[in-house]
Amino acid sequence: MSVSAAAPADLRRRAARGVMINAGFAIGLQGLGLVKAFVVAAFLSRSEYGIWGILVITLGTLGWLKQIGVSEKFVQQDDPDEERALQRAFTLDLVSNLALLGLALVMLPLFAVIYGQWDIVAPGLVLLLAIPLQSLRAPTWVFYRQLRYGRQRLLDSVDPLVSFTVTIALAIAGLGYWSLVVGFVAGIAAAALASVLASPYRLRLRWDRATMREYVAFSWPLLVAYGSLLIIPQVSMIAGEATLGLAGAGAIALASTISSYTDRVDQIVTTTLYPALCRVQDQTALLYEAFVKSNRLTLMWGIPFGAGIAVFAGDLVHFGLGDKWAPATDLIRAFGIIAACNHVAFNWSAFFRARGDTRPLAKVAPLIVVAFLVLALPLLLAFGLPGFAAGMAAMTLVSLLLRTHYVKRLFPQFRILRYAARAVAPTLPALAVVMALRAVIDERTLALALAELSLYLGLTAVATWLLEAALLREAVGYLRRRSG
Fold first, then answer.
1. N or C: which end of the chain has fewer CB within 10 A?
2. DSSP labels for 92-111?
3. pTM above 0.85, yes or no
4. 3-class SS at 132?
5. Rounded CA gap, 88 and 70, in Å?
6. Cβ neighbours for 73, distance < 8 A, ≥ 6 positions apart
7. What b/e string do you get for 157-167 counting C-beta neighbours within 10 Å, with b at 16 or more?
């Protein structure tokens, strides 16, 4: 049976299996990226890490401009000739990447002037090599559209595995932030090669004006949304470097890796569901079921992860990164809480995109930017890192209120307080026990920190099973069933 003709029950099974498989891959492989960031930080000074942070924000956020929904629109299209459709989408993606490359070449020296850091130019030019290479990963869209998640995730795993290995080796060898630069490009290049070799179709240029117009109509609200949101990290790094120096920028960059990690994992889970959502876009009951269950499954790890980062941030810095990172402890703690909160209704936008309604994204993103400029930026300038932490927390609250508004428009039965309380409940007993132990035992040792972490994880797992056993059994059941 083809995916497009799959019965609702079979589609539910395929989507559920995909979410479980991809979530496992994402948490593990994207976790390597988080571990890589913290391990390398132990070998770099805060100023050196600040250079890397500026590069990531300067060039990485420019990449948001090319996220015009090419892969998502490819999934939605119904061209009977899939090879032709892929070649058209590949051509459009390559053109947008080349345009981005040209923009980045112009912007790189400008950002060097803005930051007063000409050290970013040479590594920045090396990082730009990754931009056109990204288009060669287009063949993975075919497996994505066909719900062949195992093959898709296998190809996607090449990047983090190669990047982790190369980066850690070069960091140990003493290459500083260049280890991150070379490791990043090596990961993208290896993934591009693997995708081309595994492609079921030939990659060739095929320009079509009608296709371009169709993609643009779908994507312009996404461009507005992504273009607005890139203001936040750019201004954060510029203001942080100007007021706190490279060391402050390094602290912001390191803390931001927590949110980046959770965002990437959430994005993978969201994109897993997306093809199935497109096929049931007019069936609100099925959409709501997918929304609730996918969020509940993701919150089972997201809330404990974010809360755990907040509770064990001091131990992470003292026993792992070194006391040179002590000024960043409170910011890391705050970003852990922010990451946990951002999991609530995290994939709301996918349900609007699946229905072809991308305008809400273009409305929400600018309002979040306004909240950042009004709340987080002034607090950063006035109070440094503690003020920035408070301001980002306030901005996150605004973001939650906005997404809740639109979720309730699509699903009037959604109750965010009940939903959030259920998500937080399994973590509370573990937090209470850990805090009680700390009230009794003042001395901190590595052995005690590891024992507390094990206790925290164990109690959270037990509480999660007691509260969510039915959903977990259902999810495991989907994994055990085979295709007919």
1. C
2. HHHHHHHHHHHHHHHHHHHH
3. no
4. helix
5. 10
6. 89, 214, 215, 218, 219
7. bbbbebbbbbb
